[in-house]
Amino acid sequence: MLEVKNVTKRFGSLIAVRDVSLTVPKGELRAVIGPNGAGKTTFFNLISGFFPPSAGMIAFDGRDITALPAHKRVALGMARTFQVTEIFPELTLFENVRIAAEVADGYRLRPWISRAERARIGRHVEENLELAGLGAKSGRLVGELAHGDQRAAEIAMALALRPRLLLLDEPTAGMGDQETYAITQLIRRLHRDGNLTIVLIEHDMRVVFHLADRITVLDQGTFLADGTPDEIAGNEAVQAAYLGSAA
Fold first, then answer.
1. This prediction's pTM
2. Rounded distance between C-alpha atoms, residue 122 and residue 124, angstroms
3. I need a surface site. Which of 31, 153, 158, 214 has the fewest CB within 10 A?
């Protein structure tokens, strides 16, 4: 589903990501972890098209997308969330997700939508709100919701784009235990029941080891390790990167 081959990103003299490769088969849930400053979000920005790579190749479902901008990657079936929640706080939950649904169906530049089309989009919006556990709150302003619900709303917006690959950038950031549990269960449902391929960045190792099929570790912009949760847990280089060289 996703192949990243020898990708590098330079910002002037700073090399944020250096020669990193990643292969994610269809249906896998892959976690990307690493200490602060490891280059994880820059790596996500390369995959999703927000940054062009300085070197290397990115392919999605067998197609070279290295030069494609972000919106064209969305059209191919790639969607993402962000480390800082990106929502429209002054709009309702339903309206937030409807915007994404209309973009997915090609209506974003049309000034008028028929009643039948609007009803079909509405059903799609309600399905995604229910999937995200937000159906009962569809009329609420997103800016009034708890942080965990706002993160779930952003995931619902991504789902409305009908992705085949979902990129989640720190989905449990800033959450308490109960909110973290709810988002973790949502991601598990999307992976198992929705048959989505998911790549996530996450700092909470409880979430990572509970969800991931495989884990890729970055450190200072370079590839450090890749393996199953058990293999990563026992990897001395990973322990040293997180805990110091004495680990």
1. 0.87
2. 5
3. 214
Contacts of 152 (CB under 8 A, 6+ apart): 132, 133, 134, 182, 183, 186
For residues 19-33, give the mean pLDDT: 95
**Contact partners, residue 114, CB within 8 Å, separation at least 6:** none
Q: What is the mean pLDDT of residues 15-19?
A: 96
The sheet with strand 63-64 has its strands ordered as 14-24, 2-11, 55-60, 63-64
